[in-house]
Amino acid sequence: MKKNLLLLLVLFALPFALQAETFNVKKYGARGNGKKLDSPAIQKAIDACHKAGGGTVLVPAGTYLSATIVLKDNVTLHLEKDALILGTTDYKAYDNLDPFTEGLGIDVGWALLVAVDAKNVALEGEGAIDGQGSALKERHIKTDTRPEGQRWGLRPFLLRWVRCEDIRVEGVTLKYAGAWTSHYFQCRNVNIHNVTIRSFGVAHNDGINIDGCQHVRISNCDIVSGDDALCFKTTSSKMGCDDIIVTDMKLKSNQAGIKMGTESMGGFENIKISNCHIYDTKNGGIKLFSVDGAHLRNVEISNITMDEVRTPMLFRLGARLSVFRKHEDTRQPIGVFENVVIRNVKAVAADKAQLTPPSGILITGIPGHYITNLTLEDIHIRLLGTGTPEDALSEVPEAIDKYPEVKTFGPKIPAYGVWARHVKGLKLKNVTFELKNPDARPEIICEDGDMQIYK
């Protein structure tokens, strides 16, 4: 009986053992010397792994010069310690397997490592992927003489995951993308853990972009990015961001630490973000936007510390109403911004900010479309002060259909603490401000709205 049971266990385990086969890229011709393109050899290893039913593609220590690499079903790409996939500086060598238009109207989608319609895919290990963004740009602009705002979209993202299921990204370091560092579009069951991002030097170096994804878990990541560090987007109305939990993040950015929008056609719902440290951001700490028709609701952000952050919070419901996948989507009606809670935040605002003098929290809908049931609880922000009586008379533009940014509403805000407009059910619970210098502006202003203040 015992022998039969043992035989059954062995036979049951055999298929799983076969699936765990390892495919070393060097056996498929990769040199790892950083001189000749190794992406064809890496792709051969991935294809062989996929054909065999799945397993691990091993990248040993070395430098692997690469153009586009495509991951496939049931493949784990494992980067050993001191393994480096180095993106070629020839931007024409990359492929765009899922073109789309981003929030500024630029066609984008080229990528170094990409998976499309794949299931059970992973990137793991102690190695790194480096896109050589600055060197790629330097080479690019020698032959492409258009203005930078028109040409940057040809530069590749570092990672792209498109309509994939069961994704895991763990342990790796992602560096110096040509554009966005990582982009997850319409994916389900995404796990991102213990990832380090150091991506800056060229424009649009977002850290993690979650674009219309569901069932997402992100934890223990350390991000220093040239653009938004942790950003949620919906470039399609067909699938929103839903059931997302983020915790234990370090976020530094030349733009925002945590952002939802600006691309905001689909919803942002049932999202919880907690235990994050945001520091040295140049354009906002927490920024939540619905400007392209999104229903942004049931979002909770808690236990956040901020240091040297320009404009700690901005909340916007607007009517830009852009379309990003023009052959697949249509313009949406004005969206909804409701039932959002920001709790337990301690922030030191930067003295030098987009607003002069700095302000802490900006909240604005548009006429007839209100930000509803926003709760700010246990918030303390330290600010420079120095506002004058003239500053208190400043008028803030509606900018109904404009790109939503702090500077859109500046350069002066008539309140130093909370300025709110077109709001219903705004609740301020133990929201306090500390000033380094006197400020002649009111602490709180609410225009066209109702607000409750609890001490």
From TrEMBL:
GO terms for molecular function: polygalacturonase activity. The keyword Hydrolase applies. PANTHER family: PECTIN LYASE-RELATED, PLASMIN AND FIBRONECTIN-BINDING PROTEIN A. It comes from the Bacteria. InterPro entries: GH28_Enzymes, Glyco_hydro_28, PbH1, Pectin_lyas_fold, Pectin_lyase_fold/virulence. Pfam families: Glyco_hydro_28 (PF00295). Belongs to the glycosyl hydrolase 28 family. GO terms for biological process: carbohydrate metabolic process. Keywords: Glycosidase, Hydrolase, Signal. SMART domains: PbH1. Gene3D superfamilies: Single-stranded right-handed beta-helix, Pectin lyase-like. This is Polygalacturonase. Residues 1-20 form the signal peptide. SUPFAM superfamilies: Pectin lyase-like (SSF51126).
